[in-house]
Specification:
By secondary structure, the chain is of the alpha+beta class. Helix content is 38%, strand content 23%.
Length: 404
């Protein structure tokens, strides 16, 4: 992990803001200041804390958070300039804690950590999964707003279809977990000129496609050649992809009764120590896709979970004091966007072979130390860049990090 002052942050954020239309200089300065504070403030990141550590009053932060900012455009420009170019789009809802009853969209939402429904808010997160760098870049978080006239599946698919032009400029593949292996959702994704990569339930109703030539007898030739028995597949129909001590992988084009279409199915049996295997069914609506890529893309989907983890633990994803939809939107996206900035400066800048694990905790500690040191330098009139002080300053910046 590299040690940097705040100048590279400012230069990187400003270079992306320059590519966006209709943003004045005052707004650019505010966005730069705020994103750096999200990476630097210890404890809760809310309006009171921003005012304590930042250079503006609390009211200014409240007013600026209410104004619209195109985080999707910002993060798309950022991702295309910083990533490898080989991407998949990941979509995943995430529970956000929130008390009270007056906030728009508050209700009961599923929390994966608690494994139960909890009272609060939910965001639908879009991220670009960088396949080659094995990481995720946040694109946009959209708050879920419950409606009796619209199902959750329809709401999620609308989020993606409304942003299809931007998303398809990054990748034509959307990766989502097993909950999204529904026909209503898959059809909307295909209509958005994208393909869905997901996982079926373990008891999915699948059928072999009939490959025999017509017999010449009366009547329409049958389309399917029987039901796929998940635990006992026809190994003459399926192609063996790989076989090792950990897993056995078969793949074939099959028909899904729930999706009402042919898909590329990847059948994986994970081998356990007791000799018994657990079977998982991954699929892509793109039947021409290589089975190994289907597995790679789906397994890379989990990188979006690390964005949520770092956002909730370190950059204030759960800390908003606001009840306004606009303020909440700004808080959610500023929290996750700041992780993008930190990742680019401290992790992607290192050669791939030399990278360790990405630690937002250490970055937050270093940035907080820099924030405090700059205040000390300013108050006491210390010049930190002399040869005598350099090693001391570096030691203080690293104070409290795991590497130290």
């Amino acid at each position: 992990m590299t040690i940097r002052d705040q100048k590279p942050y400012k230069e990187l954020i400003y270079s992306v803001l320059e590519k966006l239309p209709n943003i004045n200089q005052w707004r650019k300065v505010f966005v730069i200041e705020t994103l750096i504070l999200f990476m630097s403030i210890r404890g809760r990141v809310n309006f009171l804390q921003l005012a304590r550590y930042g250079k503006y009053k609390e009211q200014r932060y409240r007013q600026q958070f209410e104004k619209a900012f195109d985080f999707l455009a910002f993060n798309t420009e950022f991702t295309l300039s910083q990533g490898s170019g080989n991407y998949a789009i990941a979509f995943d809802p995430s529970y956000v804690s929130k008390s009270g009853k007056k906030t728009p969209g508050v209700g009961w939402y599923w929390s994966g950590c608690a494994n139960s429904a909890k009272w609060g808010l939910e965001i639908g997160g879009l991220a670009a999964i960088d396949i080659d760098n094995h990481t995720a870049f946040h694109l946009e978080a959209i708050q879920t707003l419950n409606s009796e006239e619209q199902s959750l599946s329809d709401w999620y698919s609308k989020i993606i279809s409304d942003r299809k032009d931007t998303l398809t400029s990054i990748s034509k593949y959307l990766v989502a977990d097993a909950w999204f292996s529904k026909r209503t959702f898959a059809d909307q994704i295909l209509q958005s000129d994208m393909h869905l990569i997901s996982r079926f339930r373990d008891d999915a109703d699948l059928k072999y496609i009939n490959t025999q030539q017509p017999t010449g007898k009366r009547g329409r030739p049958r389309k399917y050649a029987g039901k796929v028995i998940i635990q006992d597949i026809d190994k003459e129909y399926f192609n063996l992809v790989s076989n090792n001590e950990e897993e056995t992988v078969y793949a074939a084009e099959i028909y899904s009764k729930s999706l009402k279409r042919n898909v590329m199915l990847v059948h994986v049996t994970y081998l356990r120590n007791n000799g018994k295997g657990a079977t998982k069914l991954y699929f892509s609506t793109d039947v021409s896709m290589e089975p190994s890529e289907v597995l790679l893309y789906y397994r890379s989907r989990f990188q979006i979970e690390f964005l949520y983890r770092d956002g909730k633990q370190h950059t204030g994803l759960n800390d908003s004091q606001a009840r306004s939809e606009n303020k909440l939107h700004f808080q959610f996206n500023a929290s996750l966007t700041s992780i993008n900035i930190a990742k680019a400066i401290h992790w992607l800048s290192i050669p791939k072979k030399e990278r360790g694990s990405f630690s937002m905790s250490d970055i937050k500690t270093m940035n907080h130390n820099i924030l405090m040191l700059e205040q000390f330098f300013d108050v006491f009139g210390i010049y930190p860049y002399s040869a005598k002080n350099q090693n001391y300053v570096k030691e203080l910046i690293l104070y409290g990090t795991k590497a130290a």
